[in-house]
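Deliverable D5.2: sample structural annotation.
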Amino acid sequence: MKQRIISAIVFGAIFLPVVIIGGLPVVILAYLLASIALYELLKMRRLSIISVPGIISLLLLWIFLLPNQFQSLLDVIHFTKIEFALLAVLLFLTYTVVTKNKFTFDDVAFSILSTLYVGIGFYYFIETREEGLIFIFFSLFIIWATDSGAYFIGRAIGKKKLWPEISPNKTIEGSIGGVFCAIIVALLFLLFTDIPATFIQMLLITVVLSVFGQIGDLVESALKRHYDVKDSGNIMPGHGGILDRFDSLLFVWPLIHFIYLF
């Protein structure tokens, strides 16, 4: 527990000031976190990021992370992000032939999906911060409230398993408790900040974000169970890897943009 607390304080001392500053430091942070997360995902499938497919995945990730203010860099070469993704697919498939199927079609699919999964999530981290610091803090507090509520309420009264094949310790009671705690935090935001939303809007948005935040956590749990790993990495002692800490937010940040800021 002591190690977890120290790791959380150190990470928070780095993450929060950068988020508060915003701008280019946030973009750099997003690139760093996303690159580590991609490395962790590829490692689960025993794919090295220092390899031809690993480098293709990383370059595609960096292109997907380009925020709107740097879109002109792509306009110069008249390529869209989708066109780069299609080019990456062709390169991946070519590599299956070059390696005589040692790099398989399944590896191609995993590499592409991993890049999109990480890239889309952290891209919307950048874009959400551009819309305002309040939205980043809102997302963080909603997920912290959901996770804490689900954990403590699940331990106290949880009896029915939520999804035992994927995450044996999570309960339906805990999941509902997590949503309830997120709603309480959201109402505090509504009362004490200038976040633009009516009561009903805030209620609906929070329920969606809390539920999908939990789904994001279950997605990563399913990945780890499938590939038989305990944590996605060990960069944060006591907390696992970057994916272990950001799995819920990778679902929440795009949703905030789609249903709140769009």
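Annotation notes: The beta strands are 161-163, 167-171. The two ends are 40 Å apart (CA to CA).
The annotation will be released with the project's public dataset once the embargo ends.
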